[in-house]
């Protein structure tokens, strides 16, 4: 498999760990790997060249990994990050929270030594974490005019990622993930152009562009099962939103009960009366509502009990290495129990390997979504599968 990670830096004072990880990366086709055995060396390398992914050990003599990370952020580092440590997982979790507050794009945190399976998961996450490195801040304004025309020229492409039942390993439906097929930069992650969507207030435009494309693919027989589409808070602030969704379903002869609209946990709690009205109207017409990235924000369980969500998608941060992490496993057990009590379907996001699949299956989680059961693909690739 080819990974869109070209330049990697390992910051670790242990030469054996550095050599081992470098060899592992080479087995994944990544040959441009620099090694720094101190914070000072690592910062110098990052000043000299653009780095796509940094593996950083937290415990180093002199200036530790935490000092390095603070200094790295001051250099305006735009790459991805993976924390490595042999210390207690709770310490790694604190460092990860620090990095999130600093504004890093957090890819992963792993115990040392990192296995090939976990390394593959880190590389998968790194691909999805941020926009393509070809796209810089300098071209954002240029992309704005391009994005406007991309709607009309249908350069925005739906990618579909399957959701599979743990009970019998059959597919239940697909989540729609939008990509921009740019003529110069290739496929661009939505993380690159969502700021433009926000600035131009094109949320409604984007949502119905994605929805209608998915419904057309379903009507033509290219898709089957349920369809999950992401919506922003701004969508639910439009008093006509639910009416428009239902009109689309009728126009494409699609049953509303097979449509799932996802909203992130962090946005769920930003209440307004119009949002409640849309929630109620959608549920009255059997459209399902999913709370996305559950476990990534600051959950209010009382508010969750009051909202009409039918599906809970567990954030990949809780799923990764859950079968080896007692703390994550304890939290997952509580989430599973709570969801069942609330009659909510559970979807595990970011499932990357058989061990994780088997563990989540034993916990009674309903659906799996991740590279283990299928990568996001445009419709033409799904038809060839």
UniProtKB/TrEMBL annotation:
It comes from the Bacteria. Residues 140-385 form the EAL domain. The keyword Aminoacyl-tRNA synthetase does not apply. SUPFAM superfamilies: CheY-like, EAL domain-like. GO terms for biological process: phosphorelay signal transduction system. The modification 4-aspartylphosphate is found at residue 57. CDD domains: EAL. One of its GO terms (molecular function) is cyclic-guanylate-specific phosphodiesterase activity. Residues 7-127 form the Response regulatory domain. Keywords: Phosphoprotein. InterPro entries: CheY-like_superfamily (IPR011006), Cyclic-di-GMP_PDE-like (IPR050706), EAL_dom (IPR001633), EAL_sf (IPR035919), Sig_transdc_resp-reg_receiver (IPR001789). This is EAL domain-containing protein (Putative c-di-GMP-specific phosphodiesterase class I). It comes from Vibrio diazotrophicus.
């Amino acid at each position: 498999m080819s990974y869109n990670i070209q330049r990697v830096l390992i910051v670790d004072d242990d030469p054996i760990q550095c050599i081992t990880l470098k060899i592992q990366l080479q087995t994944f086709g990544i040959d441009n790997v620099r090694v720094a055995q101190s914070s000072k060396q690592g910062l110098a390398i990052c000043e000299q060249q653009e780095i796509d992914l940094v593996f950083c050990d937290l415990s180093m003599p002199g200036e530790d990994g935490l000092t390095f990370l603070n200094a790295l952020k001051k250099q305006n580092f735009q790459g991805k990050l993976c924390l490595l440590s042999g210390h207690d997982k709770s310490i790694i979790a604190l460092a990860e929270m620090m990095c999130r507050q600093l504004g890093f794009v957090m890819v992963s945190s792993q115990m040392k030594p990192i296995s090939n399976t976990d390394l593959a998961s880190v590389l998968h996450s790194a691909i999805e974490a941020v926009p393509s490195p070809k796209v810089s801040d300098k071209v954002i304004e240029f992309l704005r005019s391009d994005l406007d025309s991309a709607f009309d020229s249908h350069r925005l492409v739906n990618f579909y990622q399957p959701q599979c039942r743990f009970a019998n390993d059959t597919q239940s439906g697909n989540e729609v993930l939008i990509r921009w097929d740019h003529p110069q930069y290739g496929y661009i992650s939505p993380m690159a152009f969502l700021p433009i969507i926000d600035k131009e207030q094109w949320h409604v435009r984007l949502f119905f562009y994605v929805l209608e494309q998915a419904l057309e693919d379903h009507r033509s027989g290219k898709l089957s099962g349920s369809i999950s589409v992401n919506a922003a808070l701004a969508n639910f602030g439009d008093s006509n939103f639910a009416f428009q969704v239902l009109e689309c379903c009728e126009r494409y002869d699609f049953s509303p009960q097979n449509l799932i609209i996802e909203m992130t946990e962090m946005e769920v709690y930003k209440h307004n009366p119009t949002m409640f009205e849309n929630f109620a109207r959608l549920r009255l017409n059997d459209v399902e509502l999913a709370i996305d990235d559950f476990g990534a924000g600051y959950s209010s369980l009382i508010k969750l009990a009051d909202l009409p969500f039918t599906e809970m998608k567990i954030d990949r941060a809780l799923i990764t290495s859950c079968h080896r992490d007692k703390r994550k496993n304890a939290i997952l057990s509580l989430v599973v129990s709570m969801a069942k009590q609330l009659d909510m379907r559970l979807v595990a996001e970011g499932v990357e390997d058989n061990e994780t699949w088997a563990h989540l299956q034993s916990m009674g989680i309903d659906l799996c979504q991740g590279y283990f059961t299928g990568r996001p693909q445009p419709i033409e690739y799904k038809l060839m599968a």
